[in-house]
Protein 1
Amino acid sequence: MFALDAETKAAEGPEHHRDELRLWLRLLTCTTMIEGEVRRRLRERFDVTLPRFDLMAQLDRAPQGLTLSNISKRMMVSNGNVTGLVDRLVETGHLERRAAPRDGRARLISLTPLGRAEFRAMAAEHETWIAEMFSGLGPGDVADLLRLLAKTKRSAAAAS
Amino acid sequence: MFALDAETKAAEGPEHHRDELRLWLRLLTCTTMIEGEVRRRLRERFDVTLPRFDLMAQLDRAPQGLTLSNISKRMMVSNGNVTGLVDRLVETGHLERRAAPRDGRARLISLTPLGRAEFRAMAAEHETWIAEMFSGLGPGDVADLLRLLAKTKRSAAAAS
């Protein structure tokens, strides 16, 4: 299951990177806590799943519509997962499919006026939940975190 | 699907919480990027899934063993998901089940020596990956982020 060099490293390696590991675990904990609470509130308040909310959020930011593979890429999930979600939201009248202007075979998916109205209502509440969850931070903290996480994002992208 | 007060709020509400929303999306992006890269490397390097690595990490931190519901709680996933994972790792000789000392009906799950050796080898490499992904941050940045994310964790916990 593992090569000898990894085993040797585990036995001999000095623990140089403890702070980065603690940082990663703390980042993960914060994200998991907030995401779990958002998921719970979306379900209780609107009877909506997080993937459905995320899909509508992507489409709200793209009024011209998105292809299925564009959506998958932005949501970082498989095409198959998105297809079922889109199908259900087309059936309920929240989304529509139409031919792309320059390529009749490609299908663009977008919010209907109903879908947009419902998403905007949920998004407004969602924004207050997020603000509530960060309310223990001062304005300086928020600015510092925004800057440091932008740096983290560049750093992680360079290593990927 | 939504109550009128939410709709009204969406239409009338001034956008006071844009920074917190940006902060949340940035936090989520950093976590998703790093987690995706860890997942990819675990698969390519060790042919191991992230849930399996996470389960072994929980057990490595608890040498006395954990019950199934303890593991579920720590991993924030359902009992059912953990059961299948534990079953497979017992079969391959990485985990063992035994009766709890004070309650013979309760079963404690722990790493076997094989499981511990394999986990430690993976964990050592994992630690270097994480360090690599945060290598664009200075030591001061890491300390600042640790402090600010501890504050975020307390804030999110208070709102949950």
Note: Residues 1-14 of chain B have pLDDT under 50 and may be disordered.
Protein 2
Amino acid sequence: MFIPTIAALPDNVPFVAPEELERDRGTPFIARLGANESAFGISLKAEEALRAALNTSACSWYGDPLSHDLRTALSSRLEVPMDNLCVDAGIDSLLGLTVRLFLQPGDTLVTSGGAYPTVNYHALGAGGVVKAVPYNNHHEDTIALAEAAHQTSARLVYLANPDNPMGTQVSQEAIETLISQLPHNCTLLLDEAYIEFMPAQSSLPIRVGDANVVRFRTFSKAYGMAGMRIGYAIANERIIRGYDKIRNHFGVNRLAQIAAVASLQDDLILTRVINEVQHGRERVYALARSLELAYIPSATNFVAVDFGTQERATTVLKQLAECGVFLRKPMQPPQDQFIRIGVGTEAEHNSLSEALSALICQ
Amino acid sequence: MFIPTIAALPDNVPFVAPEELERDRGTPFIARLGANESAFGISLKAEEALRAALNTSACSWYGDPLSHDLRTALSSRLEVPMDNLCVDAGIDSLLGLTVRLFLQPGDTLVTSGGAYPTVNYHALGAGGVVKAVPYNNHHEDTIALAEAAHQTSARLVYLANPDNPMGTQVSQEAIETLISQLPHNCTLLLDEAYIEFMPAQSSLPIRVGDANVVRFRTFSKAYGMAGMRIGYAIANERIIRGYDKIRNHFGVNRLAQIAAVASLQDDLILTRVINEVQHGRERVYALARSLELAYIPSATNFVAVDFGTQERATTVLKQLAECGVFLRKPMQPPQDQFIRIGVGTEAEHNSLSEALSALICQ
């Protein structure tokens, strides 16, 4: 019925949703800390803009396919020409488009084993081959990524910085070296979903002249808009024109565009959320220490906490879910002995703390 | 840089947005009648649900990837099992997924010349070939579609019922015959975006046992939610599982899911909008008659009005835009002598009427 590439795909789903788990257990979670969402809401200016928009035709009119107002604001903020920006319905959607631009059936995408799986899902969906290299001490290994790219004549290399699910970051120099060592005709997909939580000086400067780098950013994390579906790519204008050839031009919803523009006009949102996240990470670190669990210092809004073995991590994850705490864990060894604990509200953290302490100390 | 299929694509865009035209002219339109959007807003229950949602984490939490609540409501409404429903970010997105399920480079999609162009855009984006057959007396020609499908060994046939841009409908019997005459391994894509405006008795009964039909519906038109991006496919469960292999599982925004569920709980919205649209069509018919212009009776929320020649239609379209009235017109002969006039609010219609009367009678 389907073309061979599709027929060969497994019936897999990248993630089971918390809503699905809630339906299974018959009651909502009391702490939703597993999907790397923001517990600190959207910008107050965005909320105000959304309330005002409900008095207009914002729901009934298609969104501007050029996202002109948002690209104007981003261009000014990032000091990048508008022709180097493509706004789409979140990084997941952009990753789906990207593999279709670059991968023919049989072409390789190189990534890290256990890194963000949605890029693999899309690469396989385009008939691509996924080559995964191991993490190095819980960091994505830029040297191994470059080597694997050469060995496989890869068309794409995926690197998330900061990383998900481990929360680590690699240096600007390491990324520079990776870019300089990419094979001919290979493009780096630099996923910066969590970049706002990383110290600014460690971020690679934007150089849109680079024809072999696409950077992905989102309003889902620090701006708290995961449910609204809006993100963007920063790249050489030739790559941006590629997106324009295949994207859903009317695919970004109008409320998301309105909220994103308003968020960029809000000087307080990032400071407030970054501050909350820093405090929240410290709370998770303190909880881990109090329970004699190791953890990986994080440059994101979640913390990978070490439960020693995959079996124990899996058991604890399940027990926490039974206590009403939704979390996820890395899927591949050796990271699969960790649980990824998202920064939540104080109330969510207290629920986690109580449940986890009871489990560990029982 | 890109794979050959993509490199060969033109830098084309299916539609120029009204916002882009407004930026060019430096001032907003006074009547937005060209994008087949609803002028009658969203359900009051949906608006209420959205306002309440802004007090929750609805913007910050990813939407349920299974759209469970919406599929439950649709299943009950349509008397179709949930496994036969796939919710996604609008019909455009579903069409993009569909061509990827069924078309390999070189495979053919059959459609009507001048019909909804986004399916062609996506088919070409997947490396497919588009074969277009002429309309028959402004109706999509189901006999010609079936013949062309056999001649080209097509994998997909696209039929919009009611049609866009002409607003005509074909009979249930004609569609039944088309389905029965499809070649082996060819699937009918039945786009029913405007179905709520069509007399119910003329709609083909849903038979999810048919393995060669996918029906597409949306909240964009009668439910007034074009800006929110949510629609669904009804199909055999094997096809639905295909969508699950490649769709963006977290791609439907949470507010759209909330508004769609609330809309289905609103007994008044459809009656109210269908009534408004019927009155609005009558207003357009009357305007056309008063100006001695022919028109095609419509089963949708727009009316194709005949300006005699392509040149005249193009000139009038441009002049109306200068007067602040946004419209679009069919792109291919012989339909390109028509202008597609959307049903608007009374104020929008009056602006159109005034401008058009002045142009025609000058």
Note: The first strand of chain A starts at residue 31 and ends at 32.
